[in-house]
Amino acid sequence: MHKYIGKRLLMMIPVLIGVSFLVFFILAVSPGDPTRMILGQQASEESIQAMREELGLDNNLFVRYFNYMTDVFRGDFGTSWKTQLEVLPQVLGYFPNTVILSIAGILVAILIGVPIGILSAKRQYTWVDNIATVLGLIGVAMPNFWLGLLLVMLFSVNLGWLPSSGMGEGAALLPSLILPALTIGTGCAASIMRMTRSSMLESMRQDYIDTARAKGLKEGYITRMHMFKNALIPIVTIIGLQFGMLLGGAALTETIFSWPGLGRFMIESIKAKDMPMVLGSAMFLALMYSVVNLLVDILYAYVDPRIKAQYHSMGGKKRGSKRFEKQHS
Amino acid sequence: MDNILDIKDLVVRYETEDGIVRAVNSVSLELPKGASLGLVGETGAGKTTLAKSVLRLIQWPPGKIAGGSIMYQGEDLTAISEDAMCKIRGKEISMIFQDPMTALNPVMTVGKQISEAIAAHENVSSEQADEKMREMLTMVGIDPERAGEYPHQFSGGMKQRVVIAIALACNPRLLIADEPTTALDVTIQAQVLELIKNLRSRLGTSMLLITHDLGVVAQNCEYVAIMYAGEIIEKGSLRDVFKNGLHPYTKGLFASIPKLNEDVDRLKPIDGLMPDPANLPEGCKFHPRCSMAKEICRCQIPEQTEISPGHMVCCHCFGSHKDAWKGE
Question: What is the count of residue pairs from A and B with beta carbons less than 8 Å apart?
Fold first, then answer.
């Protein structure tokens, strides 16, 4: 198990190098001169040239990338071109806010998605199932920002129950968290619900459910201990993927609700062509995404003892083969 | 004689989008207390459906018990509430399933799968249930130390032992064994059958043994019923059916077994295939494959005829239409 985790951690290094490379070159070739962004349109040619030299922009792209990466490996992510603040403390300062929002969002999604998914599988083809299916489709199809705006209109503007934007401190945190969490949670809830339903339907048909029934166990107990436990792997997978996406992709929701998270911060940095900030945030988010994926894979071992045995025996295998091996073990 | 199980005119159907599958058609079957009845038939004859319906494990949709009664010790199992049924399942009647590879929950320890059956029926603490579970494991020849392991760590034969331990955990009065040895290789088969036999003699359990292996029936059962296309076509004591089998299908089954003392080049199968239960033939279900079929077999369903006490046959050769059958 430890060997497996170590291997996976090492595999994150190429991922991060790849991400930094892509982001670096996309930013470098995108139009707009960062020095003009920093100094303003009226700046003189001399000052712009001086600035270019200071930022090292006259060098070849590959030299610049190499210089940047050497600094990164020394732990120096550079300073913002716009605010002259150090990148790492900034990113670390915004990230917890994104984590708070993501956790709240995924909790909302799990609390809505899993129970409705189970219910809809248990009552397959009845009106309960049909309503859940329609709601799920609406949830997936509805753009997040639109739902966010609707919620703001209802709860903040018309009813005045909850704040429309910002992140409250202390006791005010919870009310300010509700609307953005609901907004990002509902979209995820729909996919979690669909996955729970299909996974439950699959495990309900297995022979061991007959065995469990023949023991005289109660239906509720069978649903929890036999059906749901066996349905967990795909559900955990989709929750992990959704959570990873929330960590990096909640930018839209964060913008609507003026939530001081990393996503919104990154969008602002992109607008300002603040390359060190964008690079730093992107690499940090990629790292977090990989960590979440690793956590999900470790969680598998606790959900399914067969996967645990696999981790032990080979010290690691790619995820795609797991379901296959599960069926053929 | 006292019957522990008395099935009368049981009808089970699966109502699918492609039509109604008539899996069990008007089956009557009785099992005397303490005895063991072998239910024999081809794959798809409805044996498993019959067994599952005794425990009401047929799931709706698509399956349902459409008629008849299942009397267990004077109580009609088709009429009682689900709660009452839960008290009977596992405690009074329990079942050994066909395929040990899939009959165990892969994410629950073997010990837990046995002890939850005990906890469901007996008012015991979890330590007591645990102790009973260990006893059961020892009884079926598995080291109780392995209780904390998962099914994937066990071999096929050991999984079947676990399934048996689950079925016998609460000392049921009736055991339904649905092809308990089909998925196992021959040496393990013998061990498992021996195990069931020993446990049965110790606990005095009655048994409904489902199989398509006539040899297994001969060694383990006192009574035999032959099932074809959802119907019992012949039933009686082991001797009645094995020595004096009358139905053409029964005869065909025995004729298809190679004899030790005869040198044969080819096996003698029964020609044709079992009819599709969604589209059963008119009249006697066996007539398309029957070498003795006459006109009457095509249009009229034969009724049960008692040849000697307890020996019933469903064939026009022996029924009230005997003369009509002969006359043509």
Answer: 83
**A205 Cα to chain B: minimum distance (Å):** 10
| Interchain proximity B117–A216, CB inside 8 Å | yes
Q: How far is CA B313 from CA A31, B24, B28, B240, in A?
A: 91, 17, 12, 11
Average pLDDT over residues B127-140: 89
| Contacts with A230 from chain B: Cβ below 8 Å | 105-107
Residue of A nearest to B167 (CA): A215
Start-end of H helices in B237-320: 238-244, 248-255, 295-299
**Where are any strands of DSSP class E within chain B?**
3-16, 19-32, 36-41, 63-72, 75-76, 93-96, 174-178, 206-211, 223-228, 231-237, 304-308, 311-314
The CA distance from B110 to the nearest CA of chain A, in Å, is 12
d(CA B267, CA B259): 10
> What is residue B251's three-state secondary structure?
helix
Cβ contacts of A214 on chain B, cutoff 8 Å = 55, 57, 89-90, 94-95, 97, 167
Q: How confident is the model at residue B1 (pLDDT cuts 50, 70, 90)?
A: low
Q: Do A216 and B97 touch (CB under 8 A)?
A: no
Q: Which three-class secondary structure state does DSSP give residue B171? A: coil
**ipTM attached to this prediction:** 0.85
Chain B positions touching A218 (Cβ under 8 A) are: 86, 120
**Rounded to whole angstroms, how far apart are CA atoms A304 and A288?**
24
- 3-state SS of A226-245 is HHHHHHHHHHHHHHHHHHHH
pLDDT of residue B283: 80
Distance, in Å, from the CA atom of B153 to the CA atom of A190, rounded to the nearest integer, reads: 37
CA distances from A232 to A110, A272, B82 (A): 12, 44, 28
Both tokens of residue B37?
């009845």
Contacts of A306 in chain B (CB under 8 A): 106, 150, 152
- Give the DSSP letter string of B16-42: ETTEEEEEEEEEEEEEETT-EEEEEE-
Q: Check CB contact under 8 Å for B105 and A211.
A: yes
Question: Minimal CA–CA distance to A150: which of B41, A283, B55, A142?
Answer: A142
Cβ atoms of residues B209 and B37 within 8 Å: yes
Confidence of residue B209 (pLDDT cuts 50, 70, 90): very high
Q: Tell me, what's the pLDDT at A45? A: 80
Tokens of B15: 């109502």
DSSP string across B117-157: HHHHHS---HHHHHHHHHHHHHHTT--GGGGGS-GGGS-HH
Selecting from A207, A216, A229 the residue whose C-beta is nearest the C-beta of B97 gives A207
Q: Which two tokens stand for residue B38?
A: 């072998």
Strands annotated E in A82-131: none
Chain A positions in Cβ-Cβ contact with residue B163 (cut-off 8 Å): 211
Non-local CB neighbours of A60 within 8 Å, separated by 6+ positions: none
